[in-house]
Amino acid sequence: MSKKRMFLRMVTASLLRRRSRMLIALLSIGIGATILAGLVTIYVDVPRQMGAQFRSYGANMLILPQEGAVLNREGLAGALESIPRDELIGAAPYRYVRLDMTSRQQSFTAAGTDFSQVPKTSPYFSIEGAYPENTREVLVGKSIADTIGVKAGSTMELTYQPAASSEAAGPEESRVPDAELAGSAEGFGGGIVYVSVKLDGQAAIASVEINAGTQTPEYGGRVAEDEAFLNQFIGKTLPLTLGEDTDALTGATVTSEAVVQAINTARVAENAAKPQTLNFTVTGVLTTGGEEEDYVFMSLEDMETLTGSEQLDVAELSVSAGAEQLEAYADAITQGSSGIQARLVKRVTRSEASVLEKLTALVFLVTLVVLLLTMICVSTTMMAVVSERRREIGLRKALGASDGSIRAEFLGEGMFLGLLGGVMGGLLGFVFAQVVSVNVFGSSISFQPLLLPIAVIVSMLIAALSCLLPIKRAVAIDPAIVLKGE
Prior knowledge:
The strands form two sheets. Strands 1, 2, 3, 4, 5, 6, 10, 11, 12 and 13 form a ten-stranded mixed sheet that branches. A three-stranded antiparallel sheet has the order 7-8-9. By secondary structure, the protein is an alpha+beta fold. β7 and β8 form a beta hairpin. The chain is rod-shaped. It is built from 16 helices and 13 strands. The two termini are 36 Å apart. α13 packs across α14. The chain folds into three domains: 182 residues, no CATH class; 171 residues, no CATH class; 98 residues, Sufe protein. Chain: A (Alpha-Beta Complex), CATH 3.90.1010.
């Protein structure tokens, strides 16, 4: 029989003779390996799991136009090329404008977007009804829905009043003889009041037309029909001062101030664009508990039809990546795209990084404590085995057994226990990690093949370290004293 086979036979025989004690040591190593493998598995997979959880808080990156530049769909598509497709969860573009609902004397903010991307970047949106799927359909915020009394299935007529071009002449330069001016200002309740002014040959006001459909009919709405109020502007030169050049309509002071402000800021629009009006069907009511409840959401196609422009104000991105990688993507977009800049939503990225750091510390601490307890348990068991085998060890040493052979046998027993416990713990650790992941994060994890050999190696190392003190005591046994029965 070879020395190796003899050694293995001695080790296995010794373990089998003391099955109860060795079973305790095996269970200790197995439990330690199970927790170790489970925690490491969770830790390896937790960035993805935590990332998925944090995505429910909304976007973590914004794409914005730089000052003086314009963001459009083509530019956004180019910017998104800097982010790997498997890490880009969603990218929702937005365009914000002010729209009027003259039938209800209301004016509010409308957001044009891509509804296929909104649930990916804003999964916290709660919809009573459904997202719009076709053009001429809108999603209404709860605050607006409660104010104007609409619900899924209701209809809305929305009007967009184009502003004067930034390149057109300013108010002062526009006040030339025979000019036709247009202006607007915010009136009562945030509703917009529109005016059209025609000047005569001396640049004095020849006629005034007022659209106050967003104002209450019994008060502010009367400014468009009250002859005395309208006639007081005729023959006056701009600018006007309310209370000096003109008087406010009784009961409609705020609207009167808006009319005067609109006339003073009126200018020639470059395109002489006319208001655009579209009818929409409400498909759902949005509840978020935030400012989104004050918006009306429509498709980008409808927004472009109303405004005649493909301009975007911002794009919200949800990216599955850590804080450092997000910074790298943001820098790549800003540096690689002309007129576009990327910014991180700090409240999300910082919270995610903070939670991951704390989780790392927790996993490390728990793993350290478990390994320490495993070492104590295995060491205590092996010490008891040494005490039981004192006479056997003394007899072997008296017959000529070397200290090295004693060390090798005990170390072999410990390593064998570590091997069995590591294999058992590595497999059970995945089951443990799967249960934790499903119950905590609501999703399963994938098996990491490298964790099994790591669990075995660590378990064998812990078992070997646990045997050092018992081996030292076994080697220190004096055969003469033991054989005397002392």
